[in-house]
Amino acid sequence: MPIRDRPRRSGRDRRSPEGSLPPTPARAPAPAQGPDRSASARRNAVAGVCLRAAVIAMLVAGEATSPPGFGLTGERLGVTLLTIAASVALALTIVSRLPVALPRRWDKAVVEAVFIGLVIVLSIVLDAVSHAGPAVGVLMFGVGAAAARHPLRRSLPLLLLALASLAAVFSGMLPVTELTGAAAGGTDRGLSLCVSVCVVFTVAYAIRERRAATAAQAGEAVLAERARIAREIHDILAHSLSAQIVHLEGARLLLRADRSQEALDRVERARELAKNGLEEARRAVAALRDDMPPLPAALAALAEDFRSSTGRECGLDVRGPERRLPPEIELAMIRTAQEAVTNVRRHAPGSPAAVRLSFRDGECELEVVNPPSAEPGTPGGGYGLVGMRERAELLGGTLEAGSTGDGFLVRLRVPA
């Protein structure tokens, strides 16, 4: 029998055995441009267009009112043609940035750099013909735009083009210098223009690099904040939800075995974990919104929760002048105290606890101590201590945890 081709199913129809869609490769999200960033880009574009229009108006008005002025013969004709050409080149630097002005295969930045180079050359020749100030202004604008808008691999050749053109004009190498006498006694002016061009280029390039460094720092700050948020979410979900799943799965198996009392205990533990996870999520959200309660108040609430849930004493001792700390430091100290107090309940049931918070010059110290317990506790894997040490290291602090002669001690020191 001929084998029939099976109809291909689209990716939307293919499903896993459980009925859910198969996992697709994760894609890096494209950087989203928010309304503020888009509005800022539009304002910058409008400002650039207005600035170029103002330069064109300044060039035309300056050349029209400065000798020799516009005309149809001799130097006047040269001034007229060069002014029109420079104005058109400046206008083309605006058009080259429009989305529909050029074919997609063309690099708009390269095209704009070419037009800027044309503006530089035309302004130098126009200055040699008219000896007027507007042409020098256009030259400085072109050099500054090249350095501020383009990387060094494109802006440096434009700077060399400007210096070479100035050298050619004021050294008498071009025919225009013979007609206008620009080379006669113009060596000092040519040198001053070369120095001015280099200064403008250096200042504009320094501004560009400063803006790039500021943008890079802002990007790193955003990535660091994203990493911090991801770490908080992971700490909450990985600890709380995974433990709830374990207890609920155990309760399901116990119910099948008609061991309802043990299953109820498992459900109660899962409920307690869910409650603690919700509290941790609220603390994390409060830290992200910078509206956390003061650290002593948060530790007092934690001590009160320990007393109400265990019936044992949990003292709080605050030393030194109280002050607010950065949110990430306060959250780390609260999480450390919470983990330490939870360990007392798990591994030393029936034992009281004591929390000491010390504000010192340049640092803050948190200690959680408890005496040994006569009752056996739940053995632990030590992952809570690992997480606390990681938090301390991320903040540039240290964490000490271990047995002492009087029981168990957890000490966190962070610069603050």
From TrEMBL:
Gene3D superfamilies cross-referenced by the UniProt entry: 1.20.5.1930, Histidine kinase-like ATPase, C-terminal domain
Molecular function terms, GO-annotated: kinase activity
Domain spans labelled Signal transduction histidine kinase subgroup 3 dimerisation and phosphoacceptor: 225-290
Reaction catalysis annotation: ATP + protein L-histidine = ADP + protein N-phospho-L-histidine
The enzyme's E.C. designation: 2.7.13.3
Keyword check for Transferase: yes
Claim: Isomerase is one of the keywords in the record: no
InterPro entries, per database record: HATPase_C_sf, Sensor_HK_TwoCompSys, Sig_transdc_His_kin_sub3_dim/P
Annotated spans, Disordered: 1-40
Pfam families: HisKA_3 (PF07730)
Ranges annotated as spanning the membrane: 45-65, 77-97, 109-126, 132-149, 156-177, 189-207
UniProt entry keywords in alphabetical sequence: ATP-binding, Coiled coil, Kinase, Membrane, Nucleotide-binding, Phosphoprotein, Transferase, Transmembrane, Transmembrane helix, Two-component regulatory system
Coiled coil (residue ranges): 264-291
Ranges of compositional bias, category Basic and acidic residues: 1-17
Protein's name in the database: histidine kinase
Organism: Microbispora amethystogenes
